[in-house]
Amino acid sequence: MGSPPVVGYPRYRRRWRRGPPRPPRPWWRSLLDIAIFTAAAALILLAVRVFNQVTVTPGNVDVIDGDSFRRGKDEIRLNGIDAPEYRQTCRDAAGRDWDCGKEAARALRHLVAGRMVECTGLDADRYGRLVSRCTVGDVVINSEMVRLGWAIAYTRHGTLYVREEDEARRDKRGIWRGTFDLPEDWREIHRSDMND
Predict the structure, then answer these.
(1) Is the pLDDT of residue 143 over 90?
(2) Which domain holds residue 144?
């Protein structure tokens, strides 16, 4: 009598059944995916711009002109205002030229001298400057420069500081003591000189 046959475990082979080929993806589905991705990216950028404002570390600054200064490597532009350019001149009540651009820079320097400046960046301009609302203590520098008559409300981007401008004009403060070219007009006229 022989020994019983050894029964092994059956070997299973898994067969992958290949189904019918999928039809090619319609072109409009790819376009729809691109549109959804673009819309999502735009919404994310908008949310960052509105809700995630950048706060620049408080500290001392170096004044460039009446509406901008440097803080370390960052150049900061005061939001909602436009001050005379550093080399710009204005005319007093008697029609004499005076260095209103240098005076505006001096006024800003006086506001921030030896004080901690705190800025919240709202955007970046085409020159890479952080467009900001800045304060020293309880004083909003943007507003104060317009109220003192050393800058105008930059209404091209909103109506901030229009009340302060009206007050400065009424009381003939700063550049309002005579006549002047709007800073953006002066820049346009003297663009080639500014690049020298």
Answers:
(1) yes
(2) 54-194
